[in-house]
């Protein structure tokens, strides 16, 4: 097994984790979670021997073969198939030794090497590599193409294929789904569930984690904690622990404040000095529980669009593609406020092409794109991350959008996307992919679009930001079209699914599980993947799925007044608690009890009583609104 014992790891002056103890048993599938920068990738580097612990030890069986995904791909002329097979190092070593033995005509050694090759199933290695590449989205024609022909994202898939090809004891995967589409993610998910070795996986895709892992290691506040179960089980366990921790912290905070007030007030009085001193010692002995830092740094909403024309945009018999090659034909689509569409389809079928046509970034080859005069498109695509001004700051990017906005207003807005303090005035150049994605999203949200077109918006985003984006999109009032390999996002925000396949784009009358089954049928009968209409009808085990999603959308609209009331009451409750904390801090000041402050003390006590009553009233209304919301009630 892999074991960390009293391990402390630093990067520069910063401690990533301290006195960590962890045992990962053979065969476990472990998800590694924690905010960006907490040390997940550094832990992988430590396991690979690229980093040394500052104290403690990291031990694993000496005969374990470790596989990981290379971050760089040389522009070599080797074919994609040969490149994938290179991942089986033992295979390549034996093949090289066999070639030497054949050249030397050493029959005995040749026989020994053939036996070893047979033992590792070498004669089916090419077939195994081909299946891996097909699963990751490569076509038969791609297998013979040189690696240098592929783009960066496809080269990362080739690196992933090498790691999967390796017959490893320990597989380390750092964000393996970032460069995959949904089809490849579904395939990889199934491959990993049958992987016989030990898996450690860093991912921000909660659906992927839920299916693949059976343990979660969470890094937070320099601690490494192990949880049993998948990601959803981890969330429940951690939420319960944090709730208990926070309750204990709040109680201890009140006790500490009371003790400190007593000490400050009476330590100079001889009659009370001994009691004050005993409280000083009690404070020193008390083990303070750290506050539960569970609040996400990301909080934002989509402001209501200035106008919501109906329809916003229509496509009439649109043919789309590149040059003389049409990827899509006969597309009919009308987008109205409140539409929430997720695009599904095999890689290369035309999902991103359709998004670009909707955005107006690519003209149709034929047909009509009819946009409302007040259409305001918010279009997110990965290439926009590289189009940011590397020397400009997040603040300057927003100032260019609205030069009349005050700096403080823009700073407040950027804070909701994690750009607080100096982060708002730092140049973009050294930003990570996640930081750039958050900045592009902030610029998009700021412009109040009435049509959102999102092409893989969650790439590089961590779990907290993905959750914030999901919550914001659920309350967005315009129309939404999204392409994403993040199933949790699709399930959370989309009411309708469209299938882009066979040169067509049409409504898909199933859910994501139906889509998985449709994909498996295409793998078994590739010739059948020629007609999108046929594909849609095949994937319809129940005809009421779409009706159910529409009912869910209508229910969300019907319950919106209750959602708004809950949010208003929560906001008011927070304001009252803040004022209550200020009054309690004033009452903890010994000076307030002096005769000169008698009137002020009475005012504070009166306000404290009024606050308690208002808090109880607001809390009652809030609980009542929540109960109605859970019961689906709406006042007439």
UniProtKB/TrEMBL annotation:
UniProt keywords (A-Z) are: ATP-binding, Coiled coil, Nucleotide-binding, Repeat
Which SUPFAM superfamilies would you find in this protein's record?
Answer: P-loop containing nucleoside triphosphate hydrolases
The membrane-spanning stretches of this chain are none
* Superkingdom, taxonomy of origin: Bacteria
Q: Which GO terms describe its molecular function?
A: ATP binding; ATP hydrolysis activity
What PROSITE patterns does the record tag this protein with? Answer: ABC_TRANSPORTER_1, ABC_TRANSPORTER_2
Instruction: Report the InterPro entries cross-referenced here.
Output: AAA+_ATPase (IPR003593), ABC_tran_Xtn (IPR032781), ABC_transporter-like_ATP-bd (IPR003439), ABC_transporter-like_CS (IPR017871), ABCF (IPR050611), P-loop_NTPase (IPR027417), Val-tRNA_synth_C_sf (IPR037118)
Domain named ABC transporter is located at 2-246, 313-527
Give yes or no: UniProt keyword Repeat: yes
Which residues are in coiled coils? Answer: 552-586
Q: Which family does it belong to?
A: Belongs to the ABC transporter superfamily. ABCF family. YheS subfamily.
Report the protein name in the record: Probable ATP-binding protein YheS
Native source species: Thioalkalivibrio sulfidiphilus (strain HL-EbGR7)
Taxon lineage: Bacteria, Pseudomonadati, Pseudomonadota, Gammaproteobacteria, Chromatiales
């Amino acid at each position: 097994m892999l074991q960390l014992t009293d391990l402390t790891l630093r990067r520069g002056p910063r401690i990533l984790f301290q006195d960590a103890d962890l045992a990962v048993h053979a065969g476990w599938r472990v998800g590694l979670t924690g905010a960006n920068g907490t040390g997940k990738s550094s832990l992988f580097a430590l396991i690979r021997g690229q980093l040394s612990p500052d104290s403690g030890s990291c031990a694993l069986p000496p005969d374990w073969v470790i596989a990981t995904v290379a971050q760089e791909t040389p522009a070599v002329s080797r074919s994609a198939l040969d490149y994938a097979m290179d991942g089986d190092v033992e295979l390549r070593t034996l093949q090289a030794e066999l070639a030497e033995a054949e050249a030397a005509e050493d029959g005995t050694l040749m026989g020994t090497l053939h036996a070893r090759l047979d033992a590792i199933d070498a004669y089916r290695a090419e077939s195994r590599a081909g299946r891996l590449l097909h699963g990751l989205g490569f076509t038969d024609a791609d297998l013979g193409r040189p690696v240098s022909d592929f783009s960066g994202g496809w080269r990362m898939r080739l690196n992933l294929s090498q790691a999967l090809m390796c017959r490893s004891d320990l597989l380390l995967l750092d964000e393996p789904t970032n460069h995959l589409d949904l089809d490849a993610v579904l395939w990889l998910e199934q491959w990993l569930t049958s992987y016989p070795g030990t898996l450690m996986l860093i991912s921000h895709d909660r659906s992927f984690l839920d299916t693949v892992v059976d343990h979660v290691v969470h890094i937070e506040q320099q601690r490494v904690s192990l949880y049993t179960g998948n990601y959803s089980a981890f969330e429940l366990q951690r939420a319960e622990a944090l709730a208990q921790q926070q309750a204990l912290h709040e109680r201890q905070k009140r006790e500490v404040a009371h003790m400190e007030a007593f000490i400050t007030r009476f330590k100079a009085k001889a009659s009370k000095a001994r009691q004050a001193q005993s409280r000083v010692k009690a404070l020193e002995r008390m083990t303070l529980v750290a506050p539960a830092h569970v609040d996400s740094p990301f909080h934002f909403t989509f402001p209501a669009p200035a106008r919501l024309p109906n329809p916003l945009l229509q496509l009439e018999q649109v043919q789309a593609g590149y040059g003389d090659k049409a990827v899509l034909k006969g597309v009919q689509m009308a987008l109205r406020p409140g539409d929430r569409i997720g695009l599904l389809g095999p890689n290369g079928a035309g999902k991103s092409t359709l998004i670009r046509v909707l955005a107006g970034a690519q003209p149709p080859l034929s047909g009509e794109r009819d946009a409302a005069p007040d259409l305001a498109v918010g279009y997110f695509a990965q290439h926009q991350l590289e189009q940011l001004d590397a020397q400009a700051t997040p603040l300057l990017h927003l100032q260019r959008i609205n030069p009349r906005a005050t700096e403080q207003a823009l700073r407040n807005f950027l804070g909701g996307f994690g750009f607080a303090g100096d982060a708002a005035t730092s140049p973009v150049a050294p930003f990570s992919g996640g930081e750039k994605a958050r900045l592009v999203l902030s610029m998009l949200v700021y412009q109040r679009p009435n049509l959102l077109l999102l092409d893989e918006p969650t790439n590089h985003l961590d779990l907290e930001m993905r959750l914030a984006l999901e919550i914001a999109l659920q309350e967005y009032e315009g129309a939404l079209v999204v392409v994403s390999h993040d199933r949790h996002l699709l399930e959370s925000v989309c009411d309708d699914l469209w299938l882009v396949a066979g040169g067509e784009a049409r409504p898909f009358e199933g859910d994501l599980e139906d889509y998985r089954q449709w994909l498996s049928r295409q793998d078994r009968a590739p010739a059948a993947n020629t007609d999108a209409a046929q594909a849609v009808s095949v994937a319809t085990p129940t005809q009421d799925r779409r009706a159910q999603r529409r009912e869910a959308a209508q229910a969300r609209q019907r319950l919106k007044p209750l959602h708004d009331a809950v949010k208003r009451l929560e906001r008011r409750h927070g304001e009252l608690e803040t004022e209550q904390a200020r009054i309690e801090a004033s009452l903890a000041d010994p000076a307030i009890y002096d005769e000169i402050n008698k009137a002020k003390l009475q005012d504070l006590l009166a306000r404290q009583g009024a606050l308690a009553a208002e808090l109880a009233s607001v809390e009652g209304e809030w609980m009542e609104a929540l109960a109605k919301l859970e019961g689906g009630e709406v006042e007439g």
